[in-house]
Amino acid sequence: MRALFVLFAVCSLATPALPLTAPADTIGGTVYDMSTICAGLQRMVYYAPGQGVHATWVWADSYPAMERNCRYNFRGDSSGAWSWIGPDFMSSGMNAYPGWCSFGGVDYDIGRMVPVISYSIGSMPVRPAVARGIPGQPGQFEYSEGPGEYRWPWCAVTASGTIHVAATDDATRDGVWYTRTTDFQNWSVPVHLSDPDPTFPCQVAVASKQTNRLAVLWVHAETWPCDLYYRASTDDGQTWGNPVLVPPPPAYGGDTVAGFYIASTGALYDRGDSLCIIASVNPMLGDSSYYGPCDIWFHNPARSPAWSRVHRVEVNATSVRHGLGYNSTFACRPKVGQNPETGEWLAVWCQLDTANFEPVTDVYRADLWLAASQDDGRTWTEARRLTGPDTRSRMYADLAPVVNDTLHLVWIEDLLAGWGWMGQGECTDNPVVYVKLPAHELAIEEGPKPQAPCPKPGATVVRGVLWRGAGTVPQSGASGALGLSRAVLLDAAGRR
Questions:
Q1: Based on CB atoms within 10 Å of each CB, which residue in 78, 132, 159, 472 is the most buried?
Q2: C-alpha span between 437 and 442 (Å, rounded)
């Protein structure tokens, strides 16, 4: 799996944490601190109005044991209680699959009113599979296995109940492939969707709950800047449009363009059945990649202008002290939800705090931040901090796409910031936490979003290659600017 480590620093923002009106529920636990797919993009929570909250996460109770599963828990609206709470949080929840499985994410079948959970199973070949709930029987599932040689599946369910899966080719660990099942037994022959291929498992699949529209998005990670593409279908995946290159937002001005950060794209079909995108971007100038200011932007192609800025994290390059961690940037993994009645949007993302780092791993801790829009995403409230600061790190989180007047959040609280499964510190027993919060508490005034100059970048490790920073070695780009100089990374034994 390709790793991405970045060394930079961000300015610590003094915005106070938003007070919670209800206590957080610990609904499970895991030692697996990489969430879903290594990018952490899949859905962890779906709220079905009148029914309840469906939550999933990647579960393991030891390291390096490979006995992983996709854990599931359910909170009924009528009972207000979670179905599977064990004697300790590590035993809470239930396995969504009877055998070993890996990763996983949840969507919802609105016709049957049941959750649909995707995950990888098997070995040689590894293949996608789904668990579909049985109506009226929470925690009871029926199972269907997809075609072999594909992993890291993301599922999406259209209004027809068709289950769509976007996965990565197992042999190359690249490309986005699509398959579907209409009868829960037979799967279509996988179709290659990505052109160009992402070179990293960063696909996002999203389906309308009103029609049979769906889309698959990916970031082309080998370009500078990184480009965002999607392909869409209006007929339940029978045919697909050509790849669409999403124009970057006007984030920085001048010759500095916005590059889409890998592992930082979310999407949702809004109440008008328009494909909306939220993404984390960083500045690109010539051949140089700068990791700040880091912005989060919202895109709705049905309006003009299509892009609006949600949040900016400024960079103070002189205060570089600690690491950002695996596949992370200053503000990343954004998710959006919408109130289908009012059209109000909510956005949640993970943001690093340079005033708070883990001394054992030398990695900054992350907390959750939120913003809201009451004018269909045209303007956004000033971002508010939801969690921390404390000794825990929240790098993987999800916001249920249906908000109504309550937002439903699920996240993993890493007790030791860093990625133990990647050899960065020890693995810990990490709580999986749920909280609901009245959306009206975010109805605060729009805050200023000043522009800021791009600072010089520091050392960056990108997919096994060390980029030492602009100006260290003359390397002309198309614009004549000095590019990032490269050096191959070797371990102590001299291996690449």
A1: 132
A2: 9
Phi then psi for residue 72, to 5 deg, are -135, 140
Spell out the domains of the chain, with CATH numbers in brackets.
4-488 (2.120.10.10)
Retrieve residue 55's tokens.
Answer: 């939550």
Cβ pair 216, 241 in contact under 8 A: no
Helix (H, G, I), strand (E, B) or coil at 383: coil
Whether the Cβ atoms of residue 464 and residue 2 lie closer than 8 Å to each other:
yes
Strand extents, DSSP E, 170-306: 174-181, 191-192, 204-207, 214-220, 227-233, 244-246, 257-269, 275-285, 288-289, 294-299
The pLDDT assigned to 485 comes to 34
Beta strands 137-145 and 191-192 are unpaired
0.70 exceeded by the pTM?
yes
Q: How far apart are CA 162 and CA 14, in angstroms?
A: 46
Dihedral in degrees, nearest 10, Cα atoms 65, 67, 70, 75: -80
> For 212, phi and psi rounded to 5 degrees?
-105, 30
Q: Which of 100, 97, 101 is nearest to 151 (CA)?
A: 101
* Under 8 Å between Cβ of 283 and 292: yes
Structure tokens at 79: 């009972």
Q: Which two tokens stand for residue 216?
A: 């698959």
The residues, ordered by sequence, that sit 6+ positions from 81 with a Cβ below 8 Å of its Cβ are 75
Q: Yes or no: say if 213 and 246 are a contact pair by the CB < 8 Å rule.
A: no
Which contacts qualify for 241-249: CB closer than 8 Å, 24 or more apart?
243/193, 243/194, 243/195, 246/277, 246/299, 248/281, 249/279, 249/281, 249/295, 249/297, 249/299, 249/307, 249/309
Which residue, among 347, 340, 372, has the nearest Cα to 271 in the 3D structure? Answer: 340
Q: Within 13 A of 398's CA, how many CA atoms are on the CB side? A: 27
Q: How far apart are the C-alpha atoms of 156 and 472, rounded to whole Å?
A: 46
**33 and 421 in contact (C-beta within 8 Å)?**
yes
**Does residue 354 contact residue 328 with C-beta atoms inside 8 Å?**
no
C-beta separation of 341 from 323 below 8 A: no
Length of the chain: 496
What's the pLDDT at 57?
Answer: 93
| DSSP symbols for 4-40 | EEE---BPPP-PPBPPPSSPPEEEEEES-TT-STTTT
Low-confidence ranges of the chain (pLDDT < 70): 1-22, 35-40, 66, 316-320, 442-496
Exposure of 332 in the CB half-sphere (CA atoms within 13 A):
26
Please compute Rg for the chain using Cα positions. 21
Please tell me the distance from the alpha carbon of residue 71 to that of residue 306, in angstroms, as a whole number: 37
pLDDT digits (tens, 9 = 90+) for 423-482: 788 899 999 999 999 887 765 544 444 444 444 444 444 334 443 333 322 222 222 222
